[in-house]
Amino acid sequence: MSKEDLLEFDGTVTEVLPDGNFRVKLDNEHELLAYMSGKMRKFRIRTGVGDRVVIEVSPYDLNRGRINFRHKDTNRPMGSPPTRRQQSVRRR
């Protein structure tokens, strides 16, 4: 295995920690600390508790990983469309 090879695991976010870190429980019952990948931060993809994610882990440190993908949850109801705020008319 070369240095650039990463291991990919599926897991569930169990806790949101400060500074953009997440506690993730993998499908094989291991827990590790993970952070968001750069593309997910760039496009402001929000991740919360209970979200299914794909994590890349280096073979050198199996306790930390990078969240690379968040699965779309079809069971979660979509929020109502954003409401428009009425702007007050300023009279002179």
Question: Secondary structure elements and their pairing?
Answer:
Blueprint: E1 7-17, E2 21-26, E3 31-36, H1 38-42, E4 52-57, E5 64-70
What features would you describe in this structure?
It contains 1 helix and 5 strands. Strand 1 (7-17) and strand 2 form a beta hairpin. It is mainly beta and 92 residues long. A 5-stranded mixed β-barrel has the order 1-2-3-5-4.
State the main characteristics.
single chain, 92 residues, mainly beta, 1 helix, 39% strand, elongated
Please outline what is shown here.
With 92 residues, this protein is mainly beta. The protein is built from one helix and five strands; from the N terminus they run E-E-E-H-E-E.
Give the rounded overall mean pLDDT.
Answer: 85
Identify low-pLDDT runs: none
Beta-strand level of the residues, as a percent range?
Answer: 35-45%
- Anisotropy-based shape: elongated
Characterize the largest beta sheet: strand count, sense, and whether it forms a barrel.
Answer: 5 strands, mixed, barrel
SSE order, one letter for each helix or strand:
EEEHEE
- Strand segment tally: 5
Q: What's the alpha carbon Rg, rounded to whole Å?
A: 18 Å
Distance between the termini: 73 Å
Count, helices: 1
- In spatial order, strands of the major sheet run 1-2-3-5-4
Helix content: under 10%
Structural class: mainly beta
